[in-house]
Amino acid sequence: MKSEPENDRDDLARLRRGDEEALARLIGRWERPLFAFAWRYLQNSADARDLVAELFVRLYQQRQRLREDTRLSAWLFTSLSNLCHNQARWRRRHPALSLDLAATPDWEPADPSQPGPAVAIDRDEDLATLAAAIDRLPHDLKVTLLLHYYQGLSHREIGAAAGCSERGVESRLYRARQQLRAALACYRSGRK
Prior knowledge:
Layout: H1 4-16, H2 20-42, H3 45-61, H4 72-93, H5 117-135, H6 139-150, H7 155-162, H8 166-191
Helix pairs in contact: 1-2, 2-3, 2-4, 2-6, 3-4, 4-7, 5-8, 6-7, 6-8, 7-8
């Protein structure tokens, strides 16, 4: 069985030749991980879905321009991270409330083994604080952090997507963790 990069290269070559099924296979292979990345970046399902759809439109439109040796995963995540960054900048200038953040707590008061409302609310507040701290990271640190911890990409794959060396990825992860530690320390000291 072929590895995913080989499948991607084959499907990209077929797409260049006009095979519409190749695009369907690429979408089937990449839609979920790309949506997960976009959702974690933007914390908004509708925006994430729209950007992933736009990304596949761009892939189809630019299929002839991509070189044969293009590493599709790097192209997809780089393009999507740029789309997410632009969308986040637009949202900062045009703020709106995301319905994704208004999820109901997932506890059942009738079940004594489940945490009570106070614990669930504290957990949700901690997760919201972490998400806000990640959202405030500079774009390059945020992308590196999301690709590493949430997408599970290797340092080499992240470097290809982010346009830096493996050592650069390590440095970005270190700086992102430091900034998150500082932001969360301020939050924790404020709660006491």
